[in-house]
Specification:
Residues 7-336 form the NAD(P)-binding domain. Keywords: Carbohydrate metabolism, Isomerase, NAD. This protein has 349 residues and is an alpha/beta fold. 40% of the residues lie in helices and 19% in strands. It has helices spanning 14-25, 42-51, 65-74, 89-94, 96-116, 150-172, 208-216, 244-259, 281-292, 316-322, 330-343, and strands at residues 5-9, 30-34, 56-59, 77-82, 121-127, 138-139, 179-185, 187-189, 223-226, 238-239, 241-243, 267-273, 279-280, 298-301, 310-313. The strands form four sheets. The protein has a seven-stranded parallel sheet, sandwiched between helices. A four-stranded mixed sheet has the order 6-15-10-13. A two-stranded parallel ribbon has the order 8-11. The longest helix has 23 residues, at 150-172. 49% of the residues are buried. The structure holds nicotinamide-adenine-dinucleotide (NAD) and uridine-5'-diphosphate (UDP). Nicotinamide-adenine-dinucleotide binds next to α1, α5 and β5.
Amino acid sequence: MVKHTVLVTGGAGYIGSHACVELLQSGYPVVVVDNLSNSKSESLARVEKITGKPLSFYQADIRDRKSLAEIFSKEPIRTVMHFAGLKAVGESCEQPLNYYHNNVYGTMVLAEVMAEAKVRQLVFSSSATVYGESASVQYSENSPLGPINPYGRSKAMIEDILRDLSAADKIIRAKLPWKIALLRYFNPIGAHESGLIGEDPNGIPNNLMPYVLQVAIGKLAQLPVFGNDYPTRDGTGIRDYIHVVDLVKGHLKAIEALESEKFASGGCRAYNLGAGRGYSVLEIIEAFKRVTGRKVNYKIVPRRAGDLAECFANPELALKELNWKVEKKLDDMIADSWNWQCKNPQGYA
Ligand code: NAD
Ligand code: UDP
């Protein structure tokens, strides 16, 4: 397959920067657009250091139509990997308009500019949060959707918009149909094995692994474990953790699928990216001690509003249609997260 130019929106962020590494190492020229609202350009300097290859970076907001159109006119973009967006569930409840504006409106502007530039190949960062409560704790792509917060709803709305765009192609018999992969991530953790790039959360982390890391390194005193009375094997919440490098490899597999016969007449399809098995919070704490030798102080506190007891992926469709599955184990995820944390105790600062 010819390695064409990929525009990575949100490429300076946690997952986007890992995607840039994987793309460059696989021979794709990379263009990044990021407004640096939740990242630093240092991550991109590190991407270049890891790969020994340059990328083009534009500091711009995806809602800025003029800047975006200029980038499309300058660069020979063929695929867009769309990571840019806001992602904190709690913050989305406090600032719903900001979330819908960034995520939904931002994606609309991006899609409009793409259509004008005749670029109709898109890999979108969706999330397992689009699923609603269901009878089974293992989620397949056809499990019922029902997000319960503005962040999750912004992802579900974007999925709807992109599905509608693709459906319209059939009605108007588009010559250049949209080819779209909606990738529903489970719980990405870990970092590049070099320890040069990783997750650099602002303030006190919301997510489990960054919190565990900051307790282990002594920045935070104690991990709050949100509930030990769930109907799970040890009472704590179970999630499907996935190494960020495995996750971004799934994006490259998605590009290959979009370029293949399977999508020859266009289409918009959702794929779960997860391992297909879950670990509880206490199992993560235990594994962390085994892998790093560090004990994580914790305290059981009441449940966090909106948390499911258990949630993990059925990843069979991604295996069948994208030829992708996770390769890394929980111990790799923990070892790589810890390596990043120890080498960068202040993140990119
Ligand atoms: P991140 O915050 O590290 O990266 C997002 C990047 O997008 C940041 O660099 C930020 O500066 C940029 N950005 C935000 N709004 C922008 C805008 N309007 N214009 C240009 N740039 C903008 O987050 P991440 O963890 O790398 O997540 C990437 C994507 O994956 C997001 O869309 C997120 O919703 C989705 N996702 C993340 C997780 C997770 O646990 N990290 C899980 C499921 C889905
Ligand atoms: N969790 C916890 N303490 C924390 C953060 C998270 O006990 O400080 C639990 C949370 O209740 C869930 C799991 O860890 O069961 C994963 O939470 P995270 O916020 O990382 O991901 P998500 O809620 O998006 O699945």
